Amino acid sequence: MKKSYYIYNNGSLRRKDNTLTFTNENEEQKNLPIEQINDIYVMSEMTFNTSLINILSQYGVPVHFFNYYSFYTGSFYPRERLVSGGLLVSQVEHYTDNEKRMELARAFIDGASYNIYRNLRYYNGRGKNVQSYMDTVEDLRKKIPKAQSIQELMGYEGNIRKTYYSAWPVIIDQEIEFEKRVKNPPDNMVNTLISFVNTMIYTKVLGEIYQTQLNPTVSYLHEPGDRRFSLSLDLAEIFKPILGDRLIFSLLNRNQITSKSFTKGLNYLHLTKNASKTIAAELDAKMQTTIKHRDLNKSVSYQYLIRLECYKLVKHLLGEKIYEPFKIWW
């Protein structure tokens, strides 16, 4: 099975015949079999040339770039190999038709908010009293089918997440300063952790979209933009509670990530290299974990669950089957 490869040391990445070679600052080299790489995460300063871009495109390997603060800066998205003009036309039609767009946007928020509710229910059954937060989320979820605009829908989503985040100090065993979600820039260690993990989920979703005929720039809940793959944002909403939030709870409650994992002088804005490695390793392990899929009646990985979500969206766009978002059943 192909895996993600992370580069944390400064150096250069080059093509060597039909594979890759990474050379660090000490001139130490490591060969990377490109057939085994799903995507590459660059967490450092790196130089490369057009020869590298050509082989990455040939093998369909996306590259995601992060800056010193572990903030996502962008992706190299190889030329699409799976192209469907008919599907693209349908994608655009479902965006321009408000009723069709709202149907999908509601589905994304329905799935995301349900998975949020299940997270709360999970911890409520394990000695964390978050019943009042569950009740509020459940009441807000009832308003989702009635939303008539993206703005109204995003308002409900915002209130659901506000309620959800209010429960985090109860769920997390460490003493944390976390009153609300702050993004640009994050203002404490929990917000920094959320931003980093959410970005990782976004890139994982983008990698799975690449394996389908979907165009990643045409979206429904999030407004399509010039400099982002907004369909990844749509689908990531469903998987952030399942993959991202549960990972954060686990990392903090097991003390794998603590205040020492951040640079205090930068207001906890910067993750240490070891902390970033820990998060990436734990997320990749989760992505490869398998569960018994109740509809397919076979075991699939969490990574493949994202691919299946893309296929479900394709079927909806082509009029074959109404899209239903993935919801936790266990």
TrEMBL record:
Matching Gene3D superfamilies: CRISPR-associated endonuclease Cas1, C-terminal domain, CRISPR-associated endonuclease Cas1, N-terminal domain
Keyword Nuclease: yes
Cofactor: Mg(2+); Mn(2+)
Transmembrane segments: none
Source domain of life: Bacteria
Subunit structure as annotated in this protein's UniProt entry: Homodimer, forms a heterotetramer with a Cas2 homodimer.
Family in the record: Belongs to the CRISPR-associated endonuclease Cas1 family.
Function as written in the Swiss-Prot or TrEMBL entry: CRISPR (clustered regularly interspaced short palindromic repeat), is an adaptive immune system that provides protection against mobile genetic elements (viruses, transposable elements and conjugative plasmids). CRISPR clusters contain spacers, sequences complementary to antecedent mobile elements, and target invading nucleic acids. CRISPR clusters are transcribed and processed into CRISPR RNA (crRNA). Acts as a dsDNA endonuclease. Involved in the integration of spacer DNA into the CRISPR cassette.
Name of the protein in question: CRISPR-associated endonuclease Cas1
Organism (species): Mediterraneibacter catenae
